[in-house]
Structures are given as C-alpha cells and as structure tokens.
Amino acid sequence: ATIPDKALEFINKSLEIRLQILPEDHATIGLCHHDTGWAYQNKSMFDEAIKHYKEAIEIYEKHLFDEEEYQFNITECYGRCHSNIAEIYTKQSDYDSAFNFKMKALTIDKKTCHLTEKEKEGQCYYDLGCQLAATIPDKALEFINKSLEIRLQILPEDHATIGLCHHDTGWAYQ
Predict the structure, then answer these.
(1) Which parts of the chain are TPR repeats (predicted)?
(2) Are residues 63 and 84 in contact, defined by beta-carbon separation less than 8 angstroms?
(3) Which residues, in sequence order, are CB contacts of 133 under 8 Å at separation 6+?
(4) Which residue of 35, 67, 79, 154 is most buried, as measured by CB atoms within 10 A?
C-alpha cells in the first residue's frame, strides 16, 4: 500500500537536508523532486506532480553524461519522468502533450532509443491506447488503430507488434 503523505514527509526531510549540504542541482536533489512528483501523482495532484517532474528533468539534464550517472540511473529516471508526465497528460485528456512527452521518453529509453521515428510514433500511439483501454475504450481504439496503421506501413504483416495491436484492439472491445 502506498501512503503518499507519509512519503512526502520523508522525501521533504531528505530534500531539506540535501539542500543544506549539496548544490541545488545535485543529481540526488533531482531524485527528491522525482519522488515528490510520484507521491503527488499518487494523490492525483497532477499539476504539483508535473511541476516536480519538470524540476527533476531540469536537474537530470545536467547529469546525463556524468561519470557517476550510473550510480543513480539518471538516464532511466530522466526517461521515467517524461513517461510519468505523459501518463498524467493522458489522464487529463491532453493527448498532444502526452504524445510529446511519451515520444521523448521513447527516445531516452535504452530499449527503444534505436527505433526509427516512425517506429517510436507507432509505439507511442500504442502505449497511449493501452493506458486508456480500461477507462476510455473509444479513444484507446483510435490510438491503437493509429499505431497499427503506422506499423503496417513500416513492418511486415507478421511482426509481433502488429499482433499486439490486433490483440489489444480486441481487449479494448471487452
């Protein structure tokens, strides 16, 4: 069980201590903002969550190429912030912003950064559709079908991701 208020209490204590002894753009300050964003997201306080995710992103951008980056998984956290903001914008029906943040997350993620722009676009629509399938099935179908349309243009018909699109189209109809 998550207890966001308790999480915020301890994250804020950590942030307060770190700000006394570290530069305000230290990577671990970014981690505090990231965790604060997550706690606010769990409380459905989305504007506050986005604010902290964006603060984390600003700090992370300064540390993406540090030798110590691997200790804190800054690149992964940087991408996660973008994904989390995309999730929030999707919940708020701001699909253009969600798409933009999701595309950025796919560009950062080590598993998807090698994809072409068109493949990322297809994946982005697919991810947004999957997120909406349980709550707004009509919009989910629109996104999954857009993903399928893109993927059919660039991949063989028997590609696994095309199969997933068909599967999740059926899922959205349930």
Answers:
(1) 30-63
(2) no
(3) 140, 144, 168, 171, 172
(4) 79
Domain of 129? 115-173
2, 42 contact by CB (below 8 A): yes
pTM: 0.90
Q: What distance in Å separates the CA atoms of residue 27 and residue 23, rounded to the nearest whole number? A: 9
pLDDT over threshold 70, residue 57: yes
Distances (CA, A) of 28 to 5, 42, 83, 94, 163: 20, 21, 20, 30, 41
| Same domain membership, residue 82 and residue 38 | yes
Domain count, the chain: 2
Question: Does residue 110 lie within any of the structural domains?
Answer: no
Residue 155, classified by CB atoms within 10 Å of its CB into exposed (0-12), middle (13-18) or buried (19+), is: middle
